Fold:
Amino acid sequence: MRRQRLEGKVALITGAAGGIGSASAALFEAEGAKLALTDLDVTSLAPFAERGALTLVQDVTEEGRWRDVVEAVIARFGRLDVLVNNAGIALIGNIETTTLADWRKTQTINAESVFLGCREAVRVMKGQGGSIINISSVAGLIGDAQSAAYCASKGAVRLLTKSVALYCARKGYGVRCNSVHPSFTRTNMVEGFIATARNPDRVREGLAAAAPLGRMGEASEVAAAILYLASDESAFTTGAEMVVDGGLTAQ
Ligand SMILES: NC(=O)c1ccc[n+]([C@@H]2O[C@H](COP(=O)([O-])OP(=O)(O)OC[C@H]3O[C@@H](n4cnc5c(N)ncnc54)[C@H](O)[C@@H]3O)[C@@H](O)[C@H]2O)c1
Structure:
């Protein structure tokens, strides 16, 4: 039987009840990882819990909760090898329409939480090694006129990732840190956006056409990239940007 790609590894995934988070959890589980899954509501994660996962309610913006969650993971499984900072929101708004409240909410959930997660993970991974995967977006690489706050938050995740990667490499911690940059992926985040549009079918077609491959991505396709970065197959990869975008940013 082939060796499972995450055999013996303990992985913590935030936003695990969402599209990309739950697809990653399923793939990680199939590849032998022990799972800790968190979200604002973990009801939908009950099947994972029944199969041995630790599921915890976590608001990723709460500093103190990060310590509790990581300590709970160590109490259950003895270590933490992989952190996927995946929780996030997308608020639509350009530079004229974005309120300060929406700006702050977006930075707190999408960027500040990744800082908190990285800091907590490095604390327990240093010495033993580990892999941190931060979910950014193509909006962290190129601009989008209608996503001012979202672009800023995802750009912050991209460069925070590189800072963490360099620091851990130079310290010899054995901790890698990489970012993943999906384009439009079929999850609640995008379906919610489509549903509120005046002409949902046209918006759906436009999102599909945005990628040269002519369709939206699937959560499982993003999860496959996350799995690679979590596994030892990517042992020489740190500070990298993994694009999963159907060719969108190649243009
Ligand atoms: N779907 C896309 O097209 C797309 C593209 C690029 C990047 N992303 C990024 O991928 C990640 C996952 O998004 P998704 O598409 O699976 O969306 P989703 O809405 O299906 O999942 C996001 C999850 O994050 C959780 N969450 C939100 N705020 C939280 C908080 N404060 N604390 C804890 N959990 C919180 C939500 O409850 C939800 O389960 C996000 O960071 C998103 O920005 C998504």
User: Anything to note?
Assistant: Residues 10-182+217-244 form a domain with the Rossmann fold fold (CATH 3.40.50.720). The CA atoms of residues 49 and 55 lie 6 Å apart.
